[in-house]
Amino acid sequence: MLEQLTYAQIGARLAPTMAEPWSLSISMSCNKPMPARSPCDQAVIDVVATLKTRIEQLEAELAAERQRYEHEHERADMLARGQEILDIQLKNLRLSLQTERKPVERVAPWTLREWWRWLRISRPAARSASEQLRLR
User: Fold this and answer.
1) Is residue 122 part of a domain?
2) C-alpha to C-alpha distance for 77 and 63, rounded to whole angstroms
């Protein structure tokens, strides 16, 4: 259960403990020599030193890996840009081939007479002997 106290009651409870005299001797604390280190303390110091050197090695490895990562990142960016350029060039070539190969669309199909006229003009070896004599 919780007690509810006034400030006066709290002060009355603390007064006997505060009234007890206590003092700190500065001369005793300052002139006291430090205790000699035990072998256990030396083992802890050695472990800490070993861990610090290992941390330094790992930091050096991390720096080298970060440098290699940056190099590979730049290389991958260059390859991606080159791929994009090749892709654009390929699309442009396809478009130019498609525009060159479009067949000529005629408005109306050829009549039989137009087809024979085209055949006669475009294939001189197919002319008959009488036509060749007449043309000379």
Assistant:
1) no
2) 21
Q: Which two tokens stand for residue 94?
A: 């396809």
Is 28 within the bounds of a domain?
no
The type of residue at 87 is D
Q: How many domains does the chain divide into?
A: 1
pLDDT computed for residue 56 by the predictor: 95
Instruction: Give the torsion sign (CA, 73, 75, 77, 79).
Output: negative
Cα angle value 129/135/136 (rounded, 5°): 95
Q: Is residue 71 part of a domain?
A: yes
Q: For residues 125 and 121, what is the distance between their CA atoms, to the nearest angstrom?
A: 10
Q: Which two tokens stand for residue 57?
A: 């090695």
Has residue 80 got a pLDDT over 90?
yes
Burial class from Cβ neighbours inside 10 Å (0-12, 13-18, 19+) for residue 127 reads middle
**0.85 surpassed by pTM:** no
> Which DSSP letter does residue 24 get?
-
Domain that holds residue 66: 39-101
Residue 68 maps to a domain: yes
- Is 50 within 8 Å of 42 (Cβ atoms)? no
